[in-house]
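Task: sequence design from structure.
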């Protein structure tokens, strides 16, 4: 739920939107050095024979 008073100021709205975008980026991006899914799938397939 969005508090209504955040949009009374353009700067507050900009900071709120930046926080939403930052959160979305952090959730969607993989951590540095993490293996990709294709390499993980190949490892599992090799382990299963």
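Answer:
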């Amino acid at each position: 739920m969005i508090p209504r008073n955040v949009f009374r100021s353009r700067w507050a709205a900009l900071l709120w939107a930046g926080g939403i975008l930052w959160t979305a980026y952090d959730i969607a991006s993989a951590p540095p050095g993490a293996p990709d899914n294709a390499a993980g799938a190949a490892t599992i397939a090799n382990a299963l024979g």
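The two ends are 49 Å apart (CA to CA).
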